[in-house]
Amino acid sequence: MTNYIEVKAEILAIGDELLYGQINDTNSHWISQELDKIGVRVIHRSTVGDNSESMLAAFEAAEKRADIVLMTGGLGPTNDDLTKPLLAKYFDCEIELVPEALEAVKTFFEKRGRELTELNRLQAHLPTKCTYVPNVVGTAPGMWFEENNTLWMSMPGVPHEMKKLMKDFVIPKIKEKFELPVIYHKVIKTVGIGESWLADLIKDWEKNLPQNIKLAYLPSLGQVKLRLTAFGNDYDELQANVETQIDLVKPLIEKYIYGYNLESLEESIGRLLKQKNKKVALAESCTGGYISHLITSIPGSSKYFQGALVPYHNEFKNSLLNVDKTVLKNHGAVSEQTITLMAENIREQFNADYGLASSGIAGPEGGWAEKPVGTVWIACAMDGRTISKKLQLTQDRMLNIQLTAVATLNLLRLSILEETE
Amino acid sequence: MTNYIEVKAEILAIGDELLYGQINDTNSHWISQELDKIGVRVIHRSTVGDNSESMLAAFEAAEKRADIVLMTGGLGPTNDDLTKPLLAKYFDCEIELVPEALEAVKTFFEKRGRELTELNRLQAHLPTKCTYVPNVVGTAPGMWFEENNTLWMSMPGVPHEMKKLMKDFVIPKIKEKFELPVIYHKVIKTVGIGESWLADLIKDWEKNLPQNIKLAYLPSLGQVKLRLTAFGNDYDELQANVETQIDLVKPLIEKYIYGYNLESLEESIGRLLKQKNKKVALAESCTGGYISHLITSIPGSSKYFQGALVPYHNEFKNSLLNVDKTVLKNHGAVSEQTITLMAENIREQFNADYGLASSGIAGPEGGWAEKPVGTVWIACAMDGRTISKKLQLTQDRMLNIQLTAVATLNLLRLSILEETE
């Protein structure tokens, strides 16, 4: 087995709004995952309010327990934010203007054509013992301390600012400071099968996994991730071990695997479409633009995404998408006949290789006996044929929108693979 | 000033899977909200692993800080679950079979036609100093202690089991044990102004807030929430005090306020459109369907949302949205001239009162000197006029999409208010 020195980290979230339940602390969970990936062990997480006594006590307790203390929040320009003055007090140093930080804040506002306020100017004043860490997506800088034989990082509570500071500065810095154990992760991403069915298909393989490889099931909406984690001393060896196991499990679940590691379903579809040099267009009714949003959230999607139409009423399904009035009248908007025409017509309008369509009753209202809330039709039109599928989903509107999006993207994925095999 | 005795609570989440980021601790946030509602003040939250030393330390620290300690997790039948033995050790008592608990577990399994295992039988053994609290939806019972002048409750980590125990037992028990203060919260939701500018506009008002009312700034993408929290004995009095303060601050920031408490920007826009009986349609280029998704995520949005077009390429801005080819050629897709036509034409196509449009360079690629990544034009077309606006945003694609959506929805909000004043 392995013989590394364990590096211990503590995560400290600061803010009354967290303790009052006004804001959900998603930062601590995300940081836990990032540290786990690089083999740093999170041994404690705390949430404290905007209160000097409890914050100072938390600094002290964390210092006793951990080699690294990562804190988020309490850095805004307003008066209820105490992190900076208390860190200065805790490390017994002054707070002074950092010209470089002032420049950064100025530029941040100039870019946005806005006036710098006195409060913003104050954000460029930092404890003299800290290393100034630029925050390029916000106004509150990061602060890095190496004090009392512990590494400290203070970050804003705004998730995308914190994440940028973690990726650009904290993670590299930690890797530079410590001899971390070698950990190799690989995630198999699956879609179109539930956790328990997946577990059933691979149970024998799972039983025979080597001791230094751990398997975790990470289910999310309509998808299940399989995370393989190998611990050891030699990266290449671990990688080889994991790849061997993946070669063994692949044939058991091939058609459900759409990608690996960080690749999202919409990214994998983008990759496929680019490979095959094909283009897609969408007619979204019940999903109201959500599928197009997922596809266009991927950089470079303009190469394969032609566009979309959201005809939210029958009148527009006819006038803008040329769905025959009598079909709409006789079968309704949520029917195989309508969804087929929607997919075929949008494909033609946008001169695409694949035309996707969704139409259903998202809820919470609008259902009836024959077509209850959660009834959804999806379709994919391609050269020469159109595949349509009926889904029976939940009572929850948002859940229905999300599950329909995953099912529709998966229908496209399978269509591309079948058609181009 | 108020003269209640503040009741302090600490929430303790137990489990390695939380610290490693394998499971997201949603329990602590939910418990925070429930305690906040009844005027119990959460002063600290901790997450510790399945480890005797850190768990005992956490009990001790919590006892020093809080009147009530609510813990979740570490109660499963497996060996890595330490909560029960450690509570027995901490309170210096034995663990004995509780016949009533055994009956409950037996019934639980009979109902499901399953065999009772030895491990399940052990779940009916509890510390002698605790009050057995039946868990009717699971196998791990709740444990209530009144020790060391503190109230303790241990609950399973499974969210729906924890929630049932909280609602049926813990909340009523706390209300019975304490004279609780009354807490009144109201959140003012603003859009279109940054935290520091907002703080600047209301700084005098903030200085003069009564001592029993606390203000917190809660910023999120393009929005800032102002949370007023009043502590006292009389709900109606607190509500009146808070409303008085809101009446004072309103005139200072009127145009930025879109709603209160839990209302989202897209909900408030839906409310406005329904009130005025107006309808909206969108032409989304750089936002790729995201704004339509936000609008249609609200139940009942079909009453005011007509539909949307996502013409992701100039060719379709012309063929499907009738934007003049020469305008596209001479001014480009990201220009005042193009965005104006997009908004006006989509309004006409969908026979809407308001036509919204977005067109920009979301990035990370596609920018150039004259129009760098983050350059976005938005517009709102209405009866007789069209308002357009240029935004200079970030390098981050997702952020640009989200910030454009907020700005566009806010442009619609202001247009509705101006037009119908």
Automatic annotation (TrEMBL), chains A, B:
InterPro entries: CinA (IPR050101), CinA-like_C (IPR036653), CinA_C (IPR008136), CinA_KH (IPR041424), Competence-induced_CinA (IPR008135), MoaB/Mog-like_dom_sf (IPR036425), MoaB/Mog_dom (IPR001453). SMART domains: MoCF_biosynth. Pfam families: CinA, CinA_KH, MoCF_biosynth. Residues 10-176 form the MoaB/Mog domain. SUPFAM superfamilies: CinA-like, Molybdenum cofactor biosynthesis proteins. Belongs to the CinA family. This is CinA-like protein. It comes from Belliella marina.
